Amino acid sequence: MGNKWTMSLCIAALLGAGACGKQEAPQTSVAPKTKDDAFMQQKVTLKLFSHSAGINTEQDVNDLLLKPIQAKYPNLSIELITGKKLEELPAAGEVPDLIATSNYYMIDPIELGMAGDLREFVKTSNLDMSKFEPQTVKVIQNFGKNGEIYGIPFSMNYGIMAYNKDIFDMFGVEYPKDNMTWNQVIDLAKKVTRQEGGVQYVGIDPGPALALSRAYSLPLLEANQEKAALTTDGFQKVFRQAKQIFDIPGIVDPNKKYSYGVGFFLKDKRLAMYPYWLSAFASSLSAADQPGKQFNWDMVTYPSYDDRPGIGREVDFHLFMVPPASKNKEAAFRAIEVLASEDAQKVMNKGARMTALKDPALRKQFASDMKVFEGKNLEGIFKVNPAPLPPASKYDVKIYGFLNDALKSVIVEGTDINTALRTANEKADKLIQEMKAK
After folding, report:
1. 330 is in which domain, residue-wise?
2. Which of 119, 183, 312, 349 has its CA 20 to 30 A from that of 204?
3. Are residues 75 and 214 in the same domain?
4. Is the model's pLDDT at 25 over the cut of 60?
């Protein structure tokens, strides 16, 4: 996530830190002045840490990274660091050469001093940042107060809304369409949240509070980053919209279950509509939508709010970062350079990870090798634009947990929205003070 940060040029500082005094150049730069091909003369093992980037196994490393990298640099290999959290690496003496992460968690390496400024690498390699989706570059730029580039985009994601045609056919209800608003989707959900043959069908699972709030780009903190901002009109509006969904009889089951997930959509086949991420859906389909297991589904654009037409889910992408303490910085960046190349992006894009390049023709080829989107409305999902991201902070992950707890209290316990959001805001304020005191 990104916005303008009060970021010190000292490695370990970001939020709440004082200035480091007068400085000649960013101390987080990881680049040499010119390209150095010495690394090609010997075998180099790049240590990779995946910080919520979905690169979790050796198979992931091999399929996504090693094949294109070794096609150009056969002397390079990658070792995946596992069994530790990012913040545990320095004390354990583990220094990654590459960090793969998402825009959500980009702030963590920056705060830990594990994000190097890649501007010189971009310059010496003539890497054209304008070839990437503009929103991804904007997010990265927002983290660099003085123009630092802390990461290079790798893969992109888009919000979609999958739907089960069989359920709509069963109840004689028209299918969802592209560019629907949440209110229109709620009207459809009411018509397909019904019982048939003793089976309860659920109209929609809208997802967590995070997903519902993102279209408004709502900041979690006040502008001074000192206090939470969860009781604003924006969050009130989001919670009121969510309540309309969960007030539909049958959405919440007798055991107070209200969150169903992609498995319920693909395997149980009792969920009519499911807003989700395209890449995650493609990965799930690759296992569930095999011969003999298919069902009649399609997808449309992610729903928009009435007052935010054409705005879908937020910007979501994965990127690579290079820690300043890496001993293989040149090799690490040259690996990134390969992964960001058009050839490598084309191959990756045919699988379950969408290209980060701003090429509409290439996007239409997404997951073509998987065949799971043949005949589906893949092109239609790009008819809405990703919502800009709100300012990020080191408190975000836990604060979103407080928001989800607040939504649960509204749905399950009948707590009024004002009280639920006020409680979440108080928890967030307490968290901020506790973290600042450490």
Report:
1. 37-157+315-386
2. 349
3. no
4. no
Distance (Å, whole) CA 347 – CA 64: 9
Give the residue from 140, 119, 75, 156 showing the smallest Cα distance to 328. 75
Cβ neighbours around 325 below 10 Å, total: 16
Tokens found for residue 113: 């001093």
Q: Pick the residue with more confidence: 10 or 211? A: 211
Please give the pLDDT value at position 388: 87
How big is the CA angle at 194 (ends 192 and 199), to the nearest 5 degrees? 120
Contacts of 181 (CB under 8 A, 6+ apart): 303, 304, 305, 306, 309
Q: Is 149 found in the same domain as 75?
A: yes
Amino acid at 425: N
Q: What does the block give as tokens for 262? A: 């992609």
Whether 267 and 398 share a structural domain = yes
DSSP 348-372: HHTTTSEE-B--HHHHTTTTTTT-T
CB 396 within 8 A of CB 214: no
Is the pLDDT confidence value at 14 over 70?
no
What is the reported pTM? Answer: 0.82
